[in-house]
Specification:
Blueprint lengths: L2 H10 L20 E2 L5 H17 L9 E7 L2 E6 L4 H14 L11 E3 L5 E3 L1 H9 L1
Parallel strand pairs: 1-2
Antiparallel strand pairs: 2-3, 4-5
Length: about 130
């Protein structure tokens, strides 16, 4: 994901992305958000829900935070240090939505590929084949 989009998420949801500046030894968040720009809206809605859930928890030094955000098998994957049932359901909903949303542009997409699976719309798939 483009740096400027990542920064929007990091700024809007500081508790969720508290480890965004951690070292590679401390957190996989050091790699940033390893997804395409087309999933920005999905990630925004998910981050909003997760941050609200974090804010509703009692104060603690060990609140849930993002450990890794990436694409796997054509879907978004968000791993947290810990999570509530509500967080788990929100993540599952985002995974399902990403499976039908083009990772490149955000339009309706389909899972494509056999060995490396990616979710793309027809236009982005055609562009990928040209390059």
């Amino acid at each position: 994901m483009k740096i400027e989009l990542q920064e929007r998420l990091f700024t809007a949801f500081p508790r969720l992305y508290a480890d965004r500046n951690a070292s590679f030894q401390e957190s996989l968040m050091a790699f940033g958000l390893e997804v395409g720009d087309g999933w920005f809206d999905i990630l925004w809605r998910l981050s909003e829900a997760l941050e609200a859930e974090i804010n509703a928890l009692p104060p603690s030094d060990d609140l849930p935070r993002a450990v890794q955000v990436k694409e796997k098998y054509g879907e978004i994957r968000v791993y947290l240090s810990s999570e509530t049932d509500t967080m788990t359901r929100a993540i599952e909903q985002a995974e399902a939505e990403s499976a039908i949303t083009c990772e490149s542009c955000g339009l309706r997409g389909t899972l494509r590929g056999t060995h490396w699976v990616i979710t793309l719309c027809d236009l982005c798939e055609a562009e990928k084949r040209r390059t």
